[in-house]
Amino acid sequence: MKVAIGGAGIAGLAAAAFFARAGHEVSVYDKAPKPAPVGSGLIIQPTGQAALAALGLLDNLVKCGARLERLDGRLECGRKVLDVRYDALGLDIFGLSIHRSALFDCLHDAAREAGVSFFYGQEVAGAEIVGEVMRLGFADGAFSPPAALAVDALGLRTPFVERENCYLDYGALWANVPFPSAGGFSKHALSQRYRSANVSAGVMPIGRLRDSDEHLAAFFWTMRPSNYETFLMTPLPRWKEQVLKLWPEAAQVLDQITSHEDFVLARYAHHTAPEPVEGRVVHIGDAWHAASPQLGQGANMALLDAWALSNALQRHEDADAALSAFAKMRGRHVWLYQTISRLFTPVYQSDSKLLPALRDKLAEPLSGFWFMPKLLAAMVSGTLGGPLKA
Ligand SMILES: Cc1cc2nc3c(=O)[nH]c(=O)nc-3n(C[C@H](O)[C@H](O)[C@H](O)COP(=O)(O)OP(=O)(O)OC[C@H]3O[C@@H](n4cnc5c(N)ncnc54)[C@H](O)[C@@H]3O)c2cc1C
Q: pLDDT for 33-61, tens place per residue?
C-alpha cells in the first residue's frame, strides 16, 4: 500500500518505520527544512519501550538513556508528595529517560534504512480524495503523489483538526545541562520540588548523546507562557535566587545555565480530536491526543498509535477495516489517559490553592494503602486500561 505520512516527529517516524518494514511504500512530509528533534528530554515508559522493542530499537536506546527507577516529588520542606517506584510492577520494569534527539535519530535511521522517502520543507495544508486515493495538499499549492492512506502525524497544530484555545495556563522552561555531581541527585530518579501548584522545578537524568560520554540532565521550571517576556527581562541571577529559595540543592544545575537562551519555552496543551479516523485520514500522536507532559505519556502514546496502526494494517487486507480496528484498539486507552491527565494537571500546574493543599495533605496517608504503589506505577508506566486492547 502507498502511505503518505504528514509529520516526521515521534509518531510519524515510528509509523513510517513500522509500515516500511511491513512492505508498504511510505513517504514522509515535514515542514522543517531538515530533520531535527524538537525539545529536551523525555521518558520512554514500559509501553513505549514495548513498541521500540518491536522495532528492534530498544537495546541501543537503553545504552544511551538513563534507567529511571522512581519519580520523587517533594515540597520545599523536603516532605514527599510524589513517590512512584517502577519496581512495584516487577524488578525489570523501569522508565527510560532519554535525550529527545537520541530517540529521534534512532527512529529516523530505522525509517530510512527500511526504505522510507523523506521530503523536508513541505508544509501540509490538507488532503483531497481523488477516486479511491488520497493526496496530501501542501501550503504552496502542490500535491503529494496519490496514496491509499494519509497519516496525520502533524502534532498539536495539525491543519486536519480544528482546535481552539487548547493551550493550558502553564508551560515550562526546559534546559539541558551536564548531570550535576553535587546536590544529591540520583541518575535513576526524576526529582521535583513544588510550592503550591504554580511554582515547581525538576531535574531529570537523560543519559547521553549517541556520540558522547557526558551524562546530561534536563532541568525544568514551571512558567506561565504569558510571563516569558518578563523572564527574558529579569537578570538571570535574580531569577536563580527564586529557584534557589525553592530548591537550594539545585545550585550546581543553575551554575551551568548562563543565558536566557539556554532555555526553550514549552507550551502545554490538552486536546483530543473528536475522531481518530476520518475517511482515509488517520490521526496519530499529538494530532489525535495532546496532553500536558505531567504524566510523561505523549511520546509513548505516539509510539503505541504507530504500532497499533501497523498491526491493524497487517491483520486486515481492507484499509477501512484496518482503520476501524486501529481506532478500537487505541480508543479506550487514549480516553483513559486523556481523562487522568485532565484531572491531574491542575493538581501540579495551576493557580489553585485548594488542590495542591489537598495533594500535600493526602499524599502521605493515601500512599499507605497496599494497592497504591502498584496503581501509581501502572499509571505512570502507561499500562492502565490495556494500551492495545480491542
Ligand atoms: C517539554 C515537554 C516534555 C515532554 N516530556 C514527555 C515525556 O517525558 N514522555 C512522553 O512520553 N512525552 C513527553 N512529551 C510529549 C511528547 O513530546 C509529544 O507527545 C510527542 O512529541 C508527540 O509526537 P508527535 O509525533 O505526535 O508530534 P510532534 O513531535 O509534535 O511532531 C510533529 C511533526 O510534524 C511536523 N509538522 C507540524 N505541522 C506541520 C505541517 N503543517 N506540515 C508539515 N509538517 C508539520 C513538525 O515539524 C514535527 O516534526 C513532552 C512534551 C513537551 C512539550
A: 999 887 789 999 999 999 999 999 999 99
What is the grid cell recorded at 226?
504569558
Ligand 1 atom 20 nearest Cα = 299
Cβ proximity of 378 and 219 under 8 Å:
no
All structural domains of the chain with their residue ranges: 2-165+269-381
Q: What is the mean pLDDT of residues 380-386?
A: 96
pTM of the predicted model as reported, rounded to 2 decimal places: 0.96
CATH 3.50.50.60 fits 2-165+269-381, yes or no: yes
Residue with cell 522495532: 55
Query: Among residues 190, 233, 198, 209, which one has the least CA distance to residue 83?
Result: 190
Cell numbers for 293, please give them. 507532559
DSSP 36-104: ---SSEEEE-HHHHHHHHHTT-HHHHHHHSEEE-EEEEEETTS-EEEEEEGGGG-TT--EEEEEHHHHH
CA distance 236 to 223: 15
* Residue 32 Cβ < 6 Å to ligand 1: yes
- Residue 130: pLDDT over 90: no
Atom of ligand 1 nearest to the CA of 290: 19
What three-state secondary structure class fits 288? Answer: coil
Ligand 1 pocket test: which of 13, 28, 31 has the largest number of ligand atoms within 8 Å of its C-beta?
Answer: 31
Separation of 155 CA from ligand 1 center, angstroms? 5
Residue whose CA is at the smallest distance from ligand 1 atom 30: 155
Strand partners, 119: 29
